[in-house]
Design goal:
This protein is of the alpha+beta class. The protein contains 13 helices and 15 strands. It has an 8-stranded antiparallel beta sheet, with helices on both faces. A 3-stranded mixed beta sheet has the order 6-5-15. It has a two-stranded antiparallel sheet with strand order 4-9.
Length: 388
Amino acid sequence: MSAYGHTAGVIDRAIDNALAEKRLVGAVVVVAQGGDTFYRRAAGLADREAGRPMAFNTLFRLASVSKPIVSTAALALMAKGRMQLEDPITRWLPHFRPRLADGTTPLMTLRHLMTHTAGLSYRFFQPEGGFYAQSAVSDGMDEASVSLQENVRRIACAPLLTPPGEAWRYSIATDVLGAAIEQASGLPLAQAVKKWVTGPLAMTDTDFLAVDPARLAAAYADHPGEPRRLRQPDHLPFIDGSAGFHLSPARALDPLAYASGGAGMVGSAEDFLRLLEALRQGGAPVLPTDWVTAFTSNQIGDLPMPFWPGRGFGLGITVLKDPIAAQTLESVGTWRMGGTYGHSWFVDPVRQLSVVAFTNTALEGMSGAFVGEICQAVYAATGAMQCA
């Protein structure tokens, strides 16, 4: 199902081409403009081997799409005075005192965590045998049986890359933020997120476990010829010289897996669109408008962002500063992120656009050609010319 006017055909073609070229196995794409659904389509297969078609309520392993959900929960607590952006992390996690290479222990705040300027890293960015591997840190997507508290302890044992506030590095900071949310709310992270975010927005498909295993998409990975089904566990290369992604597709069904604020949630495309649209329209019923403004405004000045030229970072999401540097016709101020298992999304407040493109194919759906193609198609369908 698609077609909200003949202009939607350009989006259909982008999806159809990716499926026909066997770059994707399946996708759900939903576009809202001006508060109304402009386009929605479930295409391809949720499970190729079982012949199960993609459906609007298919559940996906969200990976980093978890981050804006958990960040919203933190901001909701801040809006109610339960936490503060400038709180030292030790207020909530007294034993979280990672050191710099020179052995000193710097001040780290919740703001540093939310802006990814805390000096932390991700295991998948480091070489095999790097310091996160040496400390057995989980990135939140593997099959480690570690608890959230133990994983945070291990993170604190590894050295910081830089003093907090001095550099932007995409990192496991949102997992540490999740542990702080637990202390500030007095609730397990899953319950805190439900109370402050997914519950008020009726995001009934979104949790740290698949709410209906029968609706969970199978997971696939880029492979010559056609995507291959992910093994249990599996490993995907990332950037040259890095350890890459250690993935456990079964984690979405494991009630003992720790609640990873940065990578551990499961949900549907239309559920996530509810959050994006609520934030785009001012934040009710989860956040006051001034907190949405802080969330979606660049908070890191001119710090360079590897992999995202022309963009800054808010309190958990990228924010477009320079469309030319980013090679995009998205409007200045557009928020955008993605997820390892094959997802991209963006919100263009100027054009009143919210776009969710969830796929079951890593890494094509996160960082492959499809991301630019679907963006270009959306802008073509809604009146713009192109988007790289």
